[in-house]
Amino acid sequence: MELKLITQALADGIVDSAKKDWDSAALQIEFFGAAVDTKLKFDYIDKTPGGEFLEGDQIANLLRKYHEFVHQHENAKWNRMFFTLQSNGKFEIEFKWDQQIQDDYERDSQM
After folding, report:
1. Which among 100, 61, 65 has a CA at the least distance from the CA of 80?
2. DSSP 71-83
3. Domain that includes residue 18, residue range
4. Residue 111 has what pLDDT?
């Protein structure tokens, strides 16, 4: 699956998770080996707080494919991703390496 298609599927998952009209959504993703943790926060138009969850194997599998694709094709080392989506369709993706996440994963894997 091409990166563009994976990105579109992630955006669709975010849109489908919205409970009401929104301005922007921020998806934070962390990778722990093969495990994926997500946090999704909406800025709703009516200004009520909105924290939703992207659940299910389909989203986790898309995120794993995205992670694998970027590692293989762009040789980028990252274990945190921030995906910000505006309601008009514009988006921004930021990648970071968090050594503490890796250290915790390696420590927990040895137990």
Report:
1. 100
2. HHHH----SEEEE
3. 3-109
4. 76
Reading the block at residue 3, the tokens are: 């990166």
Identify the helix (H) or strand (E) that includes residue 50.
strand 49-52
Alpha-carbon gap, residue 28 to 103, rounded angstroms: 19
45 CB neighbour count, 10 Å cutoff? 11
Q: What is the pLDDT of residue 54?
A: 62
For 33, list phi and psi in degrees, rounded to 5: 65, -120
Count of structural domains within the chain: 1
The residues with which 29 forms a beta bridge, in sequence order, are 38, 81
Mind listing the pLDDT tens digit for each residue in 2-59? Answer: 888 888 988 998 888 888 899 999 999 998 877 888 888 999 999 887 766 666 677 7
State the CATH number of the domain containing residue 50: 3.30.500.20
**Three-state DSSP class for 87?**
coil
Task: Quote the pTM value.
Answer: 0.81
